[in-house]
Amino acid sequence: MSTQDRLKELARVKKEIDEQRKKEWDAYLVRVEESKIAKQKKKQADSIEKSKLADNIKKDVDGFTNCSNQESPYYIRKNPTTGFEEKITFTDYIRKHIYNKFRYPEFAMDHELQGRVMVHFIIDKEGNPQIKEANGPKNGLILEEEAIRIIKSLPTAIPATCDGKPINIMYAIPINFQMQE
User: Among the four residues 1, 44, 80, 168, which has the most C-beta atoms within 10 Å?
Assistant: First the structure.
């Protein structure tokens, strides 16, 4: 095969790859739009539900439940060195959890998607994570999905308590997706 024929073949292959990437990107943008519409509908439904609830609820003076003794969620783990159980705060645990579970989506790398995703979630009365929403950069749906996957993979925690009774507690955690240069 001559050099010119090889160059033509390489150009053809490159064109096919570029066309495939464009098709993938276009399909992804459709998913992004569908996700935006679903989020808007959920916000509207939540807003209607909140307004109905607000009419039926008498509010506390400050809008919060008063606790004389509140404890945040935590984890218990056995120290491999000493063999004793130790308490790990939720914030310390989640930092390590994100580091260990983080995987940069290949599609995001291929299409150079990066940015910060803010995940809002609740640790419920049983100690399980319940995702409320994830907000990422423009066209960052795949990054939002990865951030949600990480938070959903949290093991059950010892739940937060208010005066000894389990309560739901809300968290907002940023997860940064930054490509190395």
Answer: 168
